[in-house]
Design brief:
alpha/beta, Arc Repressor Mutant, subunit A, D-Maltodextrin-Binding Protein, domain 2, 3 domains, 5-stranded mixed beta sheet, 3-stranded antiparallel beta sheet, 9 helices, disordered C terminus
Amino acid sequence: MLKYSLRQLEYFAATAENQSLAKAAKWLNISQPSISKAITNLERQFSVQLFIRHHARGVSLTPAGERLLVDARGLLRYAGELQQNAQASSDDTRGEIELACFVTVAPIFMPALLADFSECFPGIEIRLHEGNQDDLLFGLASGRFELALMYNLMLPADMEIGLLASFDPYVLLPEEHRLVKHKKISLKSLKDESLILLDVPPSRDFFLGLFKAAGLEPRVAFSSPSLEMVRGLVGRNQGYSLLVTHPYYDHTYDGQTIVTRPLADKTAGGELGLVRLAQMRPSWAMTTFSQFCTTWFLQHHAGRGPCQAPSIKDLPSTAGS
């Protein structure tokens, strides 16, 4: 017989998420002693210490607690899915997804993608998170995130990716730049120009790697983790930039016109996909969303606008998934 309960695991996960017994109690709308007792019982049953208590500064997970948190989140997720499947009728699709997205990609694709998905599957709730690659990989590894929309760059061996689209690197220039007259621009022609570098992992290494592969050393004038800051500096004639993520408009936040040109060099493209921890069992909601994304991106790149959702009949069957 099990000597711990799903409720105890829920209290443990909430405390880890909030890094505080008091905040977890408020979040779950229960008393703090109830949470403290549940955690104490878990520690007794597993014969490990799960948290380190810091006076007036909340709690932090021990290594044993971090390992348990991954499994606890997976078990709670599976238990929730089991209940939803038991309660749902055959045509009533319900579920929840903890979805993360790479910070430069999120504002370009997520609003339309989530709106279209919600229209087709209103019963599936998505909680959206944003971050750089390090944030996303940590969240996936810890079980906090189930899926992450991100680029296929330097992914650990324990992650699986379903590729959705590929985007070629391009050059971003101010409107009056001398190279705007060219249809394509080589890396060699940029070596003496000022580079505005998108400084967010793994984009920084990717773009600098393009120059290194060509035997060139760029002149980095400014760097920023913000895509719009990079675009703004280019618009104000502070240099050029190399990017993969491509917003749909050709003006900066402060109204300056910017121009894009393809790279003349043959370079690897940026492959965008949905990533998950290989050992995590995909829920029905995760499978449904993954298949929807595959169809959505195929239709988008075939010329249909990003706000034109694939219909449910367009989706691949989830039988056997």
